[in-house]
Amino acid sequence: MNLDKYTDIALNTLKELISIQSFSKEENLVADVMDKKLSAFGYKVYRKGNNVWVFNKNFKEGKPVLLMNSHLDTVKPNEKWTKDPYNPEVVDGKLYGLGSNDAGGCLVSLMATFLALDETDQEYNRVFCASAEEEISGKNGFELVQDEIGRIDVGIVGEPTLMEMAIAEKGLMVLDCEAIGVPGHAARNEGVNAISLAMKDIEWFHTFQFENESEMLGPVKMTITQINAGKQHNVIPASCTYVVDVRTNEYYSNEKAFEIIKANVESDVKARSFRMNSSGIPLEHPLIQAGLEQGMGYYGSPTTSDQAIMKGFPSLKLGPGDSARSHTADEFIYVKEIGQGIEKYYNLLNGLKLTTNK
């Protein structure tokens, strides 16, 4: 593989992507870029909404299929940025820009690896997919196109992991809760204070421990992230609403965790979705064994990605960059990490032996 050639392709593509605003649900212009680039490399490009995907040129029915996926969308830049988030500026070996680390570096490194592998003869097929709405867990991202892509036997999800293998990740469930009291005058001993009721349940969320702790992912984690109550100082609030961020391990589906929570709190509890369950890939899978042979480490990830909505096949989260830089002001990825990512992806996948996912 000509690493310099493919690193240049990846870096130039990443700089172009950074220069275009691509918030979740607004990825159409960066999807256009990917469409045109992949077309220029001679691929038949498939597109639905803001999702773009291509298959390897020598695709042969019956071979196992590997998905190479990362996302096009970014979060909005926070107020602490000191640089222009849409100016792909290289300073001291760092490429700055919104989405450079999460997950532009992964996206272009996977694309470059996909192109390089097409110069080889592998015993498996490949599909490269640049997907939308990952940052908001939207239904018009990878979930929208999985059935159209067809059978997938294993997937690599490009997220910044310092090129260490995240073989499991926690699920995510967001709860909207409401403690309901009775209004009254704050100066008199009347009414039922909804804040007091909520505090009892919030204390339960802080202290309750689910019985089963995961060796790879640790315990289920519940965090109160928003709270709101009251309209004026002298009125006992009749309602206190709060939001709970729940991160589940493999022992608890979101539905199961929800039932446990409902049985233990008095507040009215509603889950926004049960879709984002814990996911992972067995340590003995050939893809993971190949990574171990390449000297890659592995771990369980506390954060959630598109892995959570991929159905019917195991997947690995792996990519250049550092998750600690994601969603930060003056986000960056080291230029050298792009080349290293391509090289490690290529070495992992070149000659990989896969079986179909029955």
Arithmetic mean of pLDDT: 96
Describe the oligomeric state of these chains in a short phrase.
single chain
The biggest beta sheet is recorded as: 6 strands, mixed
- Shape estimate: globular
Low-confidence stretches: none
What is the CA-based Rg, rounded? 23 Å
DSSP strand content:
15-25%
What letter string, H or E per element, gives the SSE order?
Answer: HHEEEEEHEHEEEEHEEEHEEHEEEH
The number of helical runs is 8
Helix content: 25-40%
Describe the structure in brief.
The chain has 358 residues and is α+β, with helices and mostly antiparallel strands. It is built from eight helices and 18 strands. The strands form five sheets. The protein has a six-stranded mixed beta sheet, with helices on both faces.
Question: Can you lay out the helices and strands and say which pair or pack?
Answer:
Blueprint: H1 3-18, H2 28-40, E1 46-48, E2 51-55, E3 65-71, E4 89-91, E5 94-96, H3 100-117, E6 125-131, H4 142-149, E7 154-157, E8 165-169, E9 171-180, E10 184-185, H5 194-207, E11 221-229, E12 235-236, E13 239-248, H6 254-262, E14 268-271, E15 279-280, H7 286-293, E16 298-301, E17 315-317, E18 332-334, H8 335-349
Parallel strand pairs: 3-6, 3-7, 7-17, 8-16
Antiparallel strand pairs: 1-2, 2-6, 4-5, 5-18, 8-15, 9-13, 9-14, 10-12, 11-13
Helix pairs in contact: 1-3, 1-8, 3-8
